[in-house]
Amino acid sequence: MATVTAAKNARAQVASRAQVTQMPTYDWVALDKRGKRMKGSMQSKNATLVKAELRRQGMNPQNVKEQSKPLFGGSGKTVKPRDVAIFSRQIATMMASGVPMVQAFDIIADGQKNPRFKTMLINVKQSIEGGSSLHEALHLYPIQFDELYRNLVRAGESAGVLDTVLDTVATYKERMESIKSKIKKAMFYPLMVMAVAALVCVIMLLFVVPVFANTFKQAGAELPAPTLIVVSASQFMQSYWYIVLFGVVAVPFAIVFAKRRSTKFAHFLDRLMLKFPVLGNILRQSAIARFARTLGVTFHAGVPLVEALDSVAGATGSIVYSDAVKQMRDDVAVGHQLQLAMRQTGLFPNMVVQMTAIGEESGALDSMLFKVAEFYEEEVNNSVDTLSTLMEPLIMVVLGTVVGGMVVSLYLPIFKLAGAVAG
User: Fold this and answer.
1) Does the keyword Aminoacyl-tRNA synthetase apply (predicted)?
2) Taking burial as the number of CB atoms within 10 A of a residue's CB, which of 157, 173, 281, 346 is the most buried?
3) 269: exposed, middle or buried (Cβ count in 10 Å: 0-12, 13-18, 19+)
4) Average pLDDT of 15-32?
5) Domain 174-422 CATH (choose: 1.10.472.10, 1.20.81.30, 3.20.20.210, 1.20.1250.20)
6) What's the pTM?
C-alpha cells in the first residue's frame, strides 16, 4: 500500500512539474561583448526574464519576442517512434562517453529540428533538474515514452547501468520500427492493387461505357448479358455516384471506429487478418518477433518475468497475441513455466516453445529470446520480399481481368453486329 501511495505521489510531483515547465519560448537577438550579432531561443515566463538572463551572460539584448503559435494550435510535427529511437541512441552514446544526463539533453534538444520534440526534451530535462529521476520525468509524455520504455529505464537506473539499458532500448526501438515498416510495405501492395483496379473501373464506368451505350442505343442492337451488366453499373454510377463515394469513404472509417469501440470486433478482425494467405503469415511472424524481442530486452534489463510479460502484451501489434501474452502472464504468476504457458496458447510454433524451454533450463532465457527474434525478423523480411514478387504478376492478372472483362463486354455487341452483317 505504501509503495502504491509513493508511486502516486511521484506521479503527482511529475505532473506538477509538467505544468511549471510548459512555458512559452522566446526568440531573441542580442550583441555579444565584441558587438557580434547573436540569436537563439529560450523558454521563460516572460520577455523580461529572457533579457535578464542574456545580460547575465554578458550580452546586450536587441529584440526579444515570443514565438508565434501555429494557426491551428499545433506546435510542430508529430513525434514519431523513429524520433524516440534516434533520441535513445544519442543519449545512450553520450552517457556512455561520460556526458552528464542534463547536458546530454541540452545537446540533443539544441539539435532537434522538430519543435514539438525539442520542447518535450527541454521539459523532461527541467523535470530532472527539479529532482526527478529519468523514468519519473518521462511520465510527462506517456504516449511517446510508453510503459515499457519507462520500465526499462527504471530497471537501468536501479541497476546503475542506465547507459547500457538505453543502448539496448535504442536497438529495440530500431528493430521494432524496421518490422513496422516491413508490415506497412507488405500491406501496401494489395491495397494499391485494389485502389488501381477500382480507379480504372470508375473511369470506364463514368466516361467510356456511356459512349458505347449511346452507340448501342442508336443502333438498336440487342445487348448480351455481360454488356447489360456493365451498362447498368455505369448508369447506377452516374445517377448515384455520391452514394458510392460515401460508401468508399465511410466503410474504412466505420471499420476503424468499430475496431476501437468493440473488443469483439477488433478480435474478429485480427483473427481474420491472421488467416489471410501470405499476409497472415507475415503478421504472425511479426507478432512472434516483437514478443521475443520485447520480452528479451525487458528480462535482460532485470525486469521480473511477470512484470515483463505485462509490458510485452501491448507490444506484439496483434490483439490475438496480446490476449495470449496476458494469459501467459497469469499462468506464470501462479507458478507455471513460461514455455508451458506458451504451449497452452496454441499460437507459438514448437521451435519457439522449445528454445524458450532451453533458455529457462540453462538460465539464458534472454539470449534464446533474442535468437528467436532475429530468426523471425529475418523471416518477416523474406516473406515481404516473397509477397512483393508475387504481387507483380497478381497486379497484371487483376487489372487484366477487370479491365479486359469490361472491354470484352463492351465489344460483344459490336462483334455480334459484325457477324450479322457478314452473314
Assistant:
1) no
2) 173
3) middle
4) 65
5) 1.20.81.30
6) 0.67
